[in-house]
Amino acid sequence: MIFFAFIISFFTGILTLNWLFKNSQKMDYPLRISLSFVFGLGICAILTFLSFILFGKFNQPAIIILTVLYLALFLYLNNNTYNRLYPKFGKIKFSSLFQIACFLIASIAIYYISIQNRYGGWDAWAIWNLKMKMLILSNQPFKDIFERIHIHAHPDYPLFLPLLNTWIYAFSKADLNQIPFITTNLLTIFCPVLLFFGLKQFIKHNIAFLAGALLILHPYYVFRGVTQYADLLLGIYLLSSFIYIFQFTGGNESKTILLAGLFLGIMTFIKNEGIVLSGLLSLFTFLFLLKLKKPSASIKSFLIGLGIGLIPTLIFKIFLAPSNPDILPILSEQGINFFKPNEFFYVISAFAKETLRKEWCYTWFVFFIMFLFGFKKYFQKENSIGILLFVSYLIMVALIYTTSTEGSLEWWIKTSLARLYFALLPSIIFYCYYCFYRE
Amino acid sequence: MIKLPLNYNKILKTLFICALSLFTILNLIKLKKVVSDIVKIKQLTNYQDIEYRFKGLENNLPKGTTYLGYFSDSDLTKSDDVKLLSQAQFVLAPVILDYTNIDHKYVLFVCNNETNAWKKMKETNTSPFLRNRYGVILGVKP
Fold it and tell me: Is the separation of the CB atoms in A160 and A230 below 8 Å?
């Protein structure tokens, strides 16, 4: 039944994107359906959020009715374009069969690794899955999550993942421990597939497959992926945003950049790091759009998409969640820890040491060498968006680390830096391959 | 000035494809090792279970209980001890565990040394209601 819920989620995404693009989208079919799946997850989480705002607690009929109404609306709107939903199979090559076989074997390995750790990592049951249980079982879930649970459960964290798992529960009534386990397995397997189809749009098929294989077979990616944290979802949305931004630069289609904005907006509802990433990527995308010959239509589409995507986060942050003591501590009750240069350099050296940890299998080192050898390419036209984002994000993170008053800096870096890198990994692989191998 | 070969870019791209392919194969070998290690671990122990210490306690609380006091003799600023609190909170949700105030009607005593639990119960006039085989005591006030 959990997979049935994911199928419904997928249909919400594909019907929306099919209506939005009608006959204009120039994406390959597999990439379209992959991005539809990602988008569908966002729609379902937001519909669940809406039901909680309307009814105050878990209401299964309300969630189902809202989803059915949404599907009905977009089925009606897609009236004349159902033919675009059907896949068009060409000749199946031996290489494609080989790739599918590799993917299936890797998926089995991922599942086998995850069942040993079926409750996930610490933050899974201390934060994300705890909030899922509160949403489903509590009579006053918002009061419990935002005011009553202990500070270690981070009441200020956005609720995308718990809401998504709650939506799945509404459609499946599956065991509460099984839902996040299946969700995380699916996403861990799906992310390299999205990477492969995303890159295939721009570079040679076999090189794109190499990128997907590098990710799905990366032991630390698998380990982090199956911990049931929200970082993987953040990574998937960041990757999807990149795909839409680079797709736009190839065709200047306003609906593509609208979707890029939409994905960036929804990304802020996943984690607080998503707010920083989204803000920076939106800024650099906006600056890039300003340079176009006729920027106004594109900028308008981008801002509309971003604005719509930001609505759940704005409601959450303004009306529901307490303030976050880590980011912008001046807005919380705790004081700001003034910036100390020696701590800043400690943090920068910690960033460098993290890239060389053996768990990462020297992946970061390889991409750094790729960057050095293809240096100019990373600053050409739209490619500069990526390098600006990653560098500025790390600087922002360093500033947050050094200005927060939360606990020991060493402990905080030790427990969070690997996850920050993990969320960036799919996008960095995409970006490096895109810049280096695109003709 | 060094004159680069005309197909310099092509050579570079091919070199990196080889390097990345090698890394992918190395990752595959490491992943295979992880799976083999798990096969060995599974022969000794079952899968991870974080619920065993607290499972079933929620069935002994009256319906509608919002808060449950939480007392521990360990330092809740240390990560290992907070982990236990987080596990208890996860299992017993939606009941809220309150470690700052044990004046609630029901209190959970999770102590390394059980004597400390009994001492605290005596101090706070709490009667033991249930004790499981892991030494976790659910106490109730009159």
Answer: yes
CB A89 within 8 A of CB A175: no
Give the helix ranges, DSSP H, for A56-88. Answer: 60-77
Residue ranges per structural domain of chain A = 2-85+95-325
Angstrom CA distances, A366 to A130, A188, A363, A432, A436, stand at: 38, 22, 5, 10, 13
Residues A182, A118 contacting (CB under 8 angstroms): no
Which residues have CB under 8 Å from A379's CB, separation 6+? A387
Are A343 and A409 in contact by the 8 Å Cβ rule? The answer is: yes
HSE-up of B97 (CA within 13 Å, CB side)? Answer: 28
DSSP string, A147-186: IIS-GGG-TTS--HHHHHHHHHHHHH---TTHHHHHHHHH
> Residue A356 and residue A354: Cα distance in Å, rounded?
5
Mutation for testing the A interface, residue in B4, B18, B28, B47 having most A CBs under 10 Å: B28
Residues A299 and A287: their CA atoms lie apart, in Å, by 10
Tens of pLDDT, residues A164-221: 999 999 999 999 999 999 999 999 999 999 999 999 999 998 899 999 999 999 999 9
Q: Where are the domains of chain B?
A: 1-47, 57-140
ipTM over 0.90? The verdict is: no
Q: Which of A152, A196, A203, A439 to mutate to probe the B interface, most B CBs <10 Å?
A: A152
Find, in chain B, the residue whose alpha carbon is nearest to that of A213: B24
